[in-house]
Amino acid sequence: MSYVVAITGGIGSGKTTIADTFQKNHRIDIVDADIVAREVVEPNSIGLQKIINHFGPSILLENGYLNRSELRQRIFSQPNEKEWLNNLLHPLIREEMQHQLSLATSEYVLLVVPLLVENQLQYLANRTLVVDVLEQTQINRTVNRDKVTIKQVKAILASQASREQRLAIADDVIRNDQQFCDLNSEIALLHDKYLLLSQPSINKEN
Q1: Per-residue confidence (pLDDT) for residue 96, from 0 to 100
Q2: Which residues of the chain are modeled with pLDDT < 50?
Q3: Where does the chain bind ATP (predicted)?
Q4: N or C: less crowded end of the chain, CB within 10 Å?
């Protein structure tokens, strides 16, 4: 399996943009937890069938895909249902992420996991890159991008790990506030570092 670098960061931090830059500029493979989470509940998947068995066929849209809005409503005020869903999906997502990581062919592979700290998934990676921004930057970006209220964004932030918790597990950090704009150069330096670390003869403690 390739050397794995996990990328994480709070909502609006720009972690997807940074991962895409690694891929575009340096041809590095990406495994994205958000994409995997959608894949494990696609039509005809084991995950979706178990959700149908549990919640009934009304949990589907007319095209046979999962009605995510309906599912969120079902689990919103029912902790037991949310726990059931997490117990079903988290192992499926982890298994599929590990499968996709095993298929990577680049010198190292990026694992993009927004909730890396919250779900304690650091063990899946050799190294962790945290995309760090000011909270106000997160709020501004998310309000503009998702057309939601500041109150909604603050509720999301409150449900996620704090900046301090993410930074505590970081091996590398990219500051992605607007004033730090030379991301290509910073990513190029990290790319060179990860190429070295991915070599079997390199001391991984460095």
Answers
A1: 97
A2: 204, 206
A3: 12-17
A4: C
Contact status, residue 174 vs residue 181, Cβ threshold 8 Å:
no
The answer to whether 15 is annotated as binding is: yes
13 among annotated binding-site residues = yes
- Was 24 annotated as part of a binding site? no
Residue 12 annotated as part of some ligand binding site? yes
Specify if 91 maps to a domain: yes
Domain match, 6 and 55 both: no
CB atoms within 10 A of CB 137: 19
**Based on the domain organization, do 21 and 114 belong to the same domain?**
yes
Q: Residue 1: its pLDDT value, please?
A: 73
pLDDT at 201: 67
Answer yes or no: is 142 a known binding residue: no
* Residue 193 annotated as lining a ligand binding site: no
Alpha-carbon distance of 144 to 137, in angstroms, equals 11
Confirm whether pTM is higher than 0.85. Answer: yes
Nearest to 192 by CA among 13, 18, 25: 25
Number of domains the chain contains: 2
Judgement on whether residues 129 and 41 belong to the same structural domain of the protein: no
Same structural domain for residues 192 and 132? yes
Q: What CA–CA distance (Å, rounded) separates 78 from 151? A: 22
